[in-house]
Each structure stands twice: as C-alpha cells, then as structure tokens.
Fold this sequence. Notes:
CATH topology of the largest domain: Spore Coat Polysaccharide Biosynthesis Protein SpsA, Chain A
CATH class of the largest domain: Alpha Beta
Amino acid sequence: MLSGFIICHNEAHQIRRALSSISFCDEIIVVDSGSTDRTLDIVREFTDKIYHRDWTGFLDQKSFALNLCSNKWVLNIDSDEEVSKELKEEILAKVLEDDERISGYEINRVVFHLGKWFRKGGWYPEYRLRLFRKENATWGGEDPHEKVLVRGRIEKLNGELLHYSFKDLRDHVQRLEKYAFTSAINSLNKGKRANLFSSILRAKVRFFKIYLLKKGFLEGKEGLVIAALESFYVFLKYLYLWDLSREKTKRSSS
C-alpha cells in the first residue's frame, strides 16, 4: 500500500540512513542523476527499483519519481532526512487505516546542524507534506522550493522527520548561494525586479524575524549564526535578481 521515493546524486555519505528509515515501505523508488561515488552500491542493498535521469531540477525529478510509484500511498523524503521511530509507527497506522476522507499528511521536520537540534528560530515547527495519496497528488511550486500539491483534506502527524541538513558551515553557505541564484532566475522569468536598497532592507527584516520574532536567540551562538545566514541568503537572492535584471535591460537596449 505504500511507496517511498528518494531522488539523489552523490549521497554515499548519508543515503544509507535515509533508506534504512523507509525500509518499511512496500516499495522503494530511487531516481539518481548520475552519482559517481558509492551511492548506487548502497541503494542496491535496499531496492532494485533504481532509475537514472539527468538532472533537470527538483520539481522535474520528483514529478518523474512520483509517476514511478505503484502504490496508493506515497512517502517522499530526501537523502539527508530520516524517518524517526515514532513517525514510522504513525505512518504505518495511517496507511493501514486508509481513511478515504484524508488525502495527505504533513510531517514536522526538525533540523540537526552545528551539533544540535534546532527548535527555535524559524526552523521549527516546519511542517512538510510528505505522505499522500498518489491519485490526488501532483508536483508544483518552483525550484529550489518545489512541493507536492494535494487535492483534498490534509492533516498533521505528530512524529518528527529528522533533517541532517548540512555537512558543515561551508556546505551551508555553498548551498545558500546556489539556491539564491536559482530563485533569482525564477523571479526574473516571472518579470520581478529588485534594487540594492530592497536587497538590504529585506535582509534586515529576515534577520529580525528569525533572531527575535522566531526566538532564534534562544539557540545561543548557533541561533545567531543561522539568523545571519538566513539574512545573507535573502540579500544574495535579491542582489542576484538586481544584477540579472540589469544585464537583461542592458541586452535589450543594445
């Protein structure tokens, strides 16, 4: 009754943890975009339903993986996530119950980073729709913030999805830069514009929201680091949008 799927690329350092945590699924689908490390060797320990697809973005990859699932219910997690024991038991109970009135369940994700679990500062609670009926689901949103869209009633589960989000601070910063540029391109394609003043203002607002309103200061020094990096991401995203808009205008005028 339950399919689990993961998309991946060079995740040998962590995919075993993710796959082990969804080994209770009736089938596991893995869509790989060309791993060159031991990722696929590890995946083969858990499933033979492995598919190669060149990378075309999170949205396209997950849409492709969803279509490969053969069961009524679908569970999606990322390579850096782990289904907790409590969440596993809850998922199995809900799938077995198979309440026809419910199309999906949101799961609360908790982040482990800088040596601790973050439960303040905007990262928690963070509910993500990860368990859903395939027949009522499509993938939507936009990269890098794609999401599953489900028709019908949605409820929340109590168990937590454990998120080992970054290897270290360097990995964190590199990914923020990548996501910021992708987001800026998507905004540009939608006709959005930005200026330097708005980039700085939005970054300050983000810091205030994360560190004070969301009580990031309760996480100590680590909370300050996260608030600063969240602010940096917002600044970079709109700075890239400003630069891309400027270049587009320059090309148009020439």
